[in-house]
Amino acid sequence: MKKLTPDRLIQADVLDGLADLPDDLFQLIIADPPYGNVLVEESWDNELEGDAYLEWTEEWFRAALRTLRPDGLFFVFGQLGQREHRWIHVCSLLCRLACFHDMLIWDRVVGYNDRGDSFTPAYEQCLVLRKTPDTRPYFNKDAVRLPYDAATISRYLKDKRYKDLDARRTHLEKGKYATNLLRVPSLKGSSREKVGHPSQKPEKLISMLVESSSRPGDWVLDPFFGSGTTGVVCERLGRHWIGIEKDPGYCRIAEERIAAAQTRLESKVTERGSA
User: Fold this and answer.
1) SS3 letters for the chain?
2) Do you know which Gene3D superfamilies this protein is assigned to (predicted)?
3) What pTM was estimated for this model as a whole?
4) Where do the structural domains in the chain lie, given as residue ranges?
5) Which residues are 173's β-sheet partners?
6) How many CA atoms lie within 13 A of 112 on its CB side?
């Protein structure tokens, strides 16, 4: 197999794109596949039904898992709701093909008016898997600490149980560990990030996955690249990336976003050099 060029978008069906990738390369895989019968106006989210959707899911997941490093993590987004109960079956399937590691809850902060017979949906899920049961995956909890505000730090420093205030201050200034409930607002129409993809994930959300589960210079795979958020984040954080996307319109959007991200980075380097 020829040497793989990093930081590039492969315009292809997911199975065709994955077939050309080497084994055990990616430290991190972030997959945001079509949920199936969620975006009812998008043809690409309504192509497969029932068992056919699960069979396709097993096929692309097996093909992608082959490319994951033994100490890597595999994140798969999904959603429950009025129509999307198939996510339950997807989770069961994937946990038989790989090893369950965690289930993240993406709190979108603002609910979406999808149903009138129950509570307003306000979250999506992200199943986290590792390749084998006996391998400890790389994970850096310090990379995704959440800062305390100044008032909270001041209040905690008054706690008389802590004798070494300098050590306590250092700990507080690092922030608290992020939980597996990720509270990141979804993108609205007025957001500067919004580029026209109906299921676009926020850069902040993807950044938390990339920063915690890979190192600078590691390879990251996104087999459903969409509008290119994973590529934009990886460019900013110094990770190599490969994206697979079959829709030519989304490929153009992704290429434009990544080019703009590269321009911003080059400008910052120039500014630092002239300072």
Assistant:
1) CCCCCCCEEEECCHHHHHHCCCCCCEEEEEECCCCCCCCCCCHHHCCCCHHHHHHHHHHHHHHHHCCEEEEEEEEEEECCCCCCCHHHHHHHHHHHHCEEEEEEEEECCCCCCCCCCCCCCCEEEEEEEECCCCCCCCCCHHHHCECCCHHHHHHHHCCCCCCCHHHHHHHHHHCECCCCEEECCCCCCCCCCCCCCCCCCCHHHHHHHHHHHCCCCCEEEECCCCCCHHHHHHHHHCCEEEEEECCHHHHHHHHHHHHHHHHHHHHHHHHHHHC
2) Vaccinia Virus protein VP39 (3.40.50.150)
3) 0.90
4) 8-136+180-274, 139-178
5) none
6) 16
| Single-letter amino acid, residue 247 | D
As a whole number of angstroms, the distance between CA 219 and CA 5 comes to 11
Instruction: Find where tokens 């949906």 sit.
Output: 121
- Tens digits of residue pLDDT in 126-153: 999 999 999 899 999 999 999 999 888 8
pLDDT tens figures, 219-263: 999 999 999 999 999 999 999 999 999 999 999 999 999 999 998
Domain 8-136+180-274, CATH 3.40.50.150 — does that match? yes
